Amino acid sequence: AKGLPLSGKKVLITAGPTQEAIDPVRFLGNRSSGTMGFELAKKAANLGAKVVLVSGPTSLDVNHNSIELIRVISAQEMYEACHNHYNRTDIAICAAAVADYRPKNPAQEKLKKKDGGLNIELERNPDILLSLGEKKTHQFLVGFALETENEVENAKGKLQRKNLDAIVLNSLKDDGAGFGGTTNKITFIDKNLKIKTFGLKTKPEVASDIWEEIISKIHA
Ligand code: C5P
């Protein structure tokens, strides 16, 4: 669709949690629903973009001609899907709650219970957003930050360390913000460290605000 603000743009979005196998039936995960990423994808498509949505396990689905949904399980799979599409991406938003650690040696067979405790050794997962920041050429790259203390300072640090063009801070201190819920409260920080705060809104409204900010930066 010509004439829309994101016409001709290719957008890459990560969404949802990742699951890191402990054995064939168990995993480490988190409570991310994927809603924010899916709303960002739908909004981008409605604004004229072609979207690749890379999502970890979620109950959500999306049916839109301009959205290619790639379902992955683990952080490693999400990393590979993102890098496969990154060269052809104009704008990337990492909204996934990626597990920072994975079991080092996932068991091939279901673990049997034994007396006493159980230790599971973990190793670091790749930081997908950081790796996209390192590889950045022409892309406009956006991350999320979920902070519980020194929120703005930490988010600014993350923006600079990961070579981002903008970061969206979710405040967990605000009721109704962040994980799992249907509403969110964000602060948008651009790479000049200019900050803009928004009120508590539904996630579709938050997605509109985020796209309005990004579009104003890429057309500036
Ligand atoms: O450093 P932190 O995990 O707080 O950064 C959050 C941002 O980094 C989010 O945009 C998240 O999607 C992204 N991230 C990632 N890969 C990881 C960890 C975080 O892409 N392994």
What is the terminal separation in angstroms?
A: 21 Å
Number of strands: 14
Largest sheet: 8 strands, mixed
Bound molecules: cytidine-5'-monophosphate
Helices and strands in order:
Blueprint (H helix, E strand, L loop, with lengths): L9 E6 L4 E4 L2 E3 L6 H12 L3 E6 L11 E5 L3 H12 L4 E4 L6 E3 L18 E3 L3 H7 L5 E8 L3 H11 L4 E6 L11 E2 L1 E5 L4 E3 L3 E2 H16 L2
Parallel strand pairs: 1-4, 1-6, 4-5, 6-9, 9-10
Antiparallel strand pairs: 2-3, 7-8, 10-12, 11-14, 12-13
The protein binds cytidine-5'-monophosphate.
Cytidine-5'-monophosphate binds next to α3 and β9.
Word description of this protein:
This protein has 220 residues and is α/β, with parallel strands linked by helices. The protein has one domain: Rossmann fold. It is built from 5 helices and 14 strands. An 8-stranded mixed beta sheet has the order 5-4-1-6-9-10-12-13, with helices on both faces. A two-stranded antiparallel ribbon has the order 2-3. It has a two-stranded antiparallel ribbon with strand order 7-8. Helix 1 (35-46) crosses helix 5. The chain is globular, with a radius of gyration of 18 Å. The site of cytidine-5'-monophosphate (C5P) has 15 residues, from helix 3 and strand 9.
